[in-house]
Design a protein that fits this description.
By secondary structure, the chain is mainly β. It is about 15% helix and about 40% strand. A hairpin with an 8-residue loop joins strand 7 and strand 8.
Length: about 130
């Protein structure tokens, strides 16, 4: 009897999974290299994605790996075949190489995705003194 019940439960689980939402998030690119950027000058990159699935996709609370990176994202449902975006702004406060992650949870079939920003913060250029008149 236990085997029959286990078999029945397994069939129900697989059947329910077949009816799950089928939204799929497909990013054009999941990482961005800013190369060398000046200290104290925030830089931004927009990651675009397309819903290649059959159901709407809703992004959850998109978060960054530290307070120096601020994400902004499409808040309304992204319908099948439509595009959405996530803009990540990095405030280059500390000199040296950086590698930051933006976590993108969603109701999509492929679940939580991770975007990466990297580069190197260098000293800002000193303003050139005006030559005499």
């Amino acid at each position: 009897m236990k085997k029959f019940l286990s078999f029945f439960v397994a069939i129900l689980v697989f059947s329910a999974a077949g009816y799950a939402q089928k939204g799929v998030v497909k990013f054009a690119k999941i990482d961005h290299d800013f190369a060398k950027i000046e200290q104290g000058k925030p830089v931004s990159h927009v990651f675009e994605f397309t819903n290649t699935g059959t159901d709407p996709v809703v992004l959850g609370n998109v978060t960054a790996s530290c307070g120096c990176t601020t994400p902004e994202w499409t808040r309304e449902p992204v319908m099948p075949g439509k595009k959405g975006s996530i803009k990540a702004t990095f405030n280059a406060g500390v000199m040296g190489p950086f590698n930051k992650t933006v976590t993108v949870p969603s109701n999509a079939e492929n679940g939580t995705l991770y975007l990466t920003l990297k580069g190197e913060v260098v000293a800002s250029k000193a303003p050139e003194a005006k030559k005499g008149k």
